[in-house]
Amino acid sequence: MTISDIAKMAGVSSAAVSRYLNGGPLSEQKRAAIHEVVEKTGYRPDTAAQTLRTGKVNQVGVIAPSIGSQSVGQITAGIASELDAKSYLMLLGNTELDAQRELGYLTAMQRNHVAGIILLGSYYTPQLAQALKNCRVPVVVTGQRFQDVACVYNDDRTAARELAQRMLDHGRKRIVYIGGTERDDATGVQRREGVQDALNAAGLNGEQMPRICCNAFTMEEGQRCMQELLVRCPDLDGVVCVTDTVAFGAMRALREAGRHVGQDVGLAGVGDSWAGSMMEPGLATVRFYQKQVGQEAARILLQMLEENGSSGPVRQVTLGYQIMERGSL
Amino acid sequence: MTISDIAKMAGVSSAAVSRYLNGGPLSEQKRAAIHEVVEKTGYRPDTAAQTLRTGKVNQVGVIAPSIGSQSVGQITAGIASELDAKSYLMLLGNTELDAQRELGYLTAMQRNHVAGIILLGSYYTPQLAQALKNCRVPVVVTGQRFQDVACVYNDDRTAARELAQRMLDHGRKRIVYIGGTERDDATGVQRREGVQDALNAAGLNGEQMPRICCNAFTMEEGQRCMQELLVRCPDLDGVVCVTDTVAFGAMRALREAGRHVGQDVGLAGVGDSWAGSMMEPGLATVRFYQKQVGQEAARILLQMLEENGSSGPVRQVTLGYQIMERGSL
């Protein structure tokens, strides 16, 4: 498929298609005709040749739920290192977990002729699924396993299972769980199920595990949820939290209640926030390799760009993790 | 100055200038001729009209020293919120403190027709000064006060002075300092001078203050520098650190040496890392308003874009700070 094929199908000149692709001036009628053909055929220009011709550097779009967070910072740093090595620029969109903004960025970035898009996944919705399916450029999703899309994600379920297993090994028997919204499959569903798997394997009833869902991954929410669980289950002897930040809040509530973390109650988080290694006792947690997640996602995207849209099998990659066993267990 | 003025001066057609500005196909000869005129006149196209014509969303370039760090995350989140409200996309470059990459991004972003650039400032070099002067689009610098450039920065010197003053108020007399490279004026020079100002005002000789320069703002470096200072000045009773992360490392070294932070030795950092509020004792520090720094920088840039290059006075804005007095003092 070449520019002149597109031109013939749209009934316009090759120069018009070229202007369309480069964002040059064009009548609305011609723009619409070309747009329809490009949509229908899934045509993507050879971006390397385009760079040579125009002097522009190609861009990759990155859509993130919250660029202020530590894990997102690590993932984007990983993406940036790979893109930089291949002389791509990063067009960054920050959604603040707003689904409309996420869809808006997907559209705007395609309009701005990005070569491809990396989406730091959060919630999966039918609208997002449709938008990803309609995307005219290759997409790689990180942090979530979305159907039929290239993904780089962490094995949240197995990691949470092993973390809870370690807590059980320390003799904890009445383990409770502070989780996150189940609209987020990786952090909400997979981590909860992993903890329940461990309880079931130990002959405890995982379905009956007392649990609560925090509204945001903040210390304040961790503290509030822990206070509530302490009222509901005063004899609890272990707490697994969906993230380290939530666990720091839980730690505060446990201290206020006169409980001694690492002694009469075990505590664990997920994410290996660097602060957890400095606490006394240190916070047991799961280390994911977030920078490598970003690097891997960028490498897969760049490979898809080199293959230039030939529809090979969809790559879905899961990266390992490490249990950080510290004094809080 | 219009496209047809540029066309006349370059001896080409208006359509050629338009193609140049939109990155369309063009002979190298014409491109060079137009480029020379655009450089000479400092011409910038009306980007809003351009968006209407091409369907593309305008982009603002953001160049950051290290997108994995907490403060950079906050600044970029602030920038993103303002750009998003005005429907600009953010083109992000991560330099990892590499001066060549910083210059490379400045060039590449202009080639990609960003409307303006926000540079999260680190080191000031003659090359950077020249590149900023030659920049064809408006630039705003954050975190540093660079001459003749719009800036949004923190009052590092006054903040460090007040922080050290608080430590003196706690009766500390033999204060030492762990600083950063003086190639970075804000964190390297200004913070050190602020601490020395406080000592001088208290009748202690600030010039004689024992100090050491860490090679990176990491816990490991903070720990190493603290160990060295403990050997050089075993009777020290107060430590001010250039950042919180460095202070966390210093805290570790002090503990290992059997010193009790907040009791026989005072400790303070700068930056209000959220981990500092969770420690026991809490880490005294300076809170800067980094998200607001980003927002303010974006607002100034957008205002410059609206004024469309009319050379008004250069805005340099300093934002306030807050001393967070906690148990470690």
Automatic annotation (TrEMBL), chains A, B:
HTH lacI-type domain: residues covered: 1-54
Keywords associated with the record: DNA-binding, Transcription, Transcription regulation
Single Gene Ontology MF annotation: DNA-binding transcription factor activity
Tree of life domain: Bacteria
CDD domains xrefs: HTH_LacI, PBP1_TreR-like
InterPro entries: HTH_LacI, LacI/GalR-like_sensor, Lambda_DNA-bd_dom_sf, Peripla_BP_I
Protein name: LacI family DNA-binding transcriptional regulator
Lineage: Bacteria, Bacillati, Bacillota, Clostridia, Eubacteriales
